[in-house]
Design brief:
With about 500 residues, the chain is an alpha+beta fold. The protein is built from 16 helices and 15 strands. It has helices at about 30-35, 40-45, 50-70, 80-95, 135-145, 185-195, 210-215, 250-260, 265-270, 300-310, 325-350, 350-355, 360-370, 375-395, 435-440, 470-485, and strands spanning about 75, 105-110, 150-155, 165, 170, 200-205, 220-225, 245-250, 280-285, 315-320, 400-405, 420, 425, 445-455, 460-465. α3 packs antiparallel against α4 (about 80-95), α11 (about 325-350) crosses α13 (about 360-370) and α11 (about 325-350) packs across α14. It is globular. The chain starts with about 30 loop residues before the first helix and ends in a 12-residue tail after the last helix. Mean pLDDT is about 95; it is low at about 1-25.
Length: about 500
């Protein structure tokens, strides 16, 4: 059903935005600047057609108007301090010094990542007033590229769960429907990006925490190959299920931010590799994994409609059955998740006073971890390797794998998580997002691309999976898909 190609005319290559924009030459509406993609904004700043102070003022004014309706950005810095830093960036430009692609960009960092001297709460009352002594590594790299940190983006408590709420800052509301969840745990980042409160945003992903909120807010996001962005933590030699990644409104911007996060000295060179002829690319459609996964009615139909776009641009798309016991992938992910997540929280859990302030899901992870043996973890790791070999065999037949990003549309924001999906009971707080676990367990790159909207106007996305270290290839296909669709031009409703 995916081989019938409709008439399609590729969009023209990039054109400069606001070519006639000159500060002071005419009255430019704020939304003209806010709606620029990040690369166009970067070029205007570099050409000194707009000052960093003006950009900061426009964004801060917009945040002041918009953020109260969504609760996406928290722990905002003092406005005067931000503007003083922006003027310092202007002074550097006046003396011929440009720090990098993000020079003058207002940025709010996900509230799981350390920011020097700026509250990093992890969404937990245990860390309500925590002031890190240094920045996380990727934050340092973003600052070296010229970013101005203005605050943090809201997250699920300890990043647990694909619903962004916590007892410190409350719930973040969806960009397109403020009665619905923003997804999570990078929900604040996705909403801030979709509502134009940030030009690009950082997120992190263990169980879909960057992909799910991107799908729920109609933006792009990449979970990169495990290890592409240097790991941090108490023991960087430990295996990991999570990684930092970029979020953006265009694939070009996604690639540019990934390059900065990964430590590339030349983000433009990274982006320039994105043009690719996609004729004949082989795509395997995983769908609901042969009926294994439950879906809310309408999700698969919408995603299969979006899948047609790949055929339109010349790809060969085929349904792909997976010859692997998928329940094992989940069961062993649960063990590894508890070992790594529960282990990290065990110290706090051991103190009854602190335990009382931890969300139930965090305590659940620790309790599972405490019941594990070394052999349990070894066996789970062995079974994870078996899944990685299965995925490698799939990539011998197909260049990419595609499946939905979520199993249900954004749900009521007052719910902690959906207890049923498609008539099936969800037995854990993350079972309803099982569709993201295959990529997590394989360690391969996975990009969320917008797939369209439900009849109620709720966004959904597709995951594009590429072989490990195939991040550029995934970005190339996502870019071709982006140029054949118009989803990312659809704006959230006005407040």
């Amino acid at each position: 059903m995916f081989h019938q190609k409709r008439n399609f005319n590729p969009s023209v290559e990039d054109q400069a935005s606001l070519q006639d924009f000159k500060t002071g030459s005419f009255d430019v509406r704020q939304d003209a600047v806010l709606n620029l993609d990040a690369r166009a904004l970067s070029n205007l700043i570099a050409a000194r057609d707009i000052s960093c102070a003006e950009v900061a003022t426009i964004y801060l004014d917009h945040i002041e108007r918009t953020n109260p309706a969504h609760n996406a950005i928290v722990s905002m810095r003092d406005r005067g301090d931000v503007l003083a830093e922006a003027r310092e960036k202007d002074d550097l430009l006046a003396h011929g010094q440009r720090q990098g692609w993000m020079h003058g960009f207002p940025q709010a960092i996900k509230d799981l990542a350390a920011t020097k001297g700026l509250r990093t709460t992890q969404g937990s009352p245990l860390h309500r007033d925590a002031l890190p002594a240094q920045d996380a590594g990727f934050v340092r790299r973003m600052k070296r590229a010229g970013a101005i940190v203005i605050g943090k983006t809201n997250t699920a408590e300890f990043g647990l769960g694909s619903q962004t709420y916590n007892p410190v800052f409350g719930t973040t509301l969806n960009a397109f429907d403020r009665t619905r969840t923003a997804g999570g745990s990078s929900g604040g980042a996705a909403v801030a990006l979709a509502t134009r409160m940030l030009p690009v945003a950082d997120g992190s992903d263990s169980a879909g925490s960057i992909r799910n909120p991107a799908a729920y807010n109609n933006v792009f996001a990449l979970r990169p190959t495990q290890g592409l962005i240097p790991a941090e933590g108490r023991d960087i030699c430990l295996p990991s299920l999570g990684t930092v990644g970029p979020m953006a409104r265009t694939v070009d911007d996604l690639a540019m931010l990934l390059a900065v996060q990964a430590g590339s000295e030349n983000p433009n060179a990274f982006r320039e590799r994105l043009k690719r002829d996609v004729q004949g690319i082989r795509i395997g459609w995983l769908g609901d994994l042969g009926g294994y996964l439950a879906f809310e009615p309408g999700v698969l139909d919408l995603c299969e409609s979006a899948l047609q776009t790949f055929a339109d641009i010349g790809c060969d798309v085929e349904p792909l059955p997976v010859d692997h016991p998928m329940e094992e992938v989940w069961d062993y992910w649960i063990i590894l998740r508890a070992w790594l997540t529960g282990g990290a929280l065990a110290g706090r859990f051991s103190d009854p006073a602190k335990r009382a302030l931890m969300k139930d899901e965090a305590c659940w992870e620790v309790e599972r971890a405490l019941r594990l043996s070394a052999m349990d973890v070894f066996e789970a790791s062995t079974r994870r390797a078996a899944w990685c070999r299965t995925v490698a065999r799939l990539f011998e037949r197909f260049d990419f794998l595609v499946l939905p990003t979520a199993q249900c549309f954004p749900f009521d924001a007052s719910l902690t998580w959906p207890r049923t999906v498609g008539g099936r009971s969800m037995d854990t707080y993350h079972r309803w997002m099982e569709v993201v676990i295959p990529a997590t367990m394989a360690g391969c790159p996975a990009i969320n691309v917008p797939a369209g909207f439900s009849p109620e106007g709720l966004p959904m996305g597709l995951q594009i999976l590429a072989p490990a270290h195939g991040d550029i290839a995934a970005l190339q296909l996502a870019r071709a898909y982006e140029r054949a669709t118009t989803w990312n031009s659809r704006l959230p409703p006005p407040h």
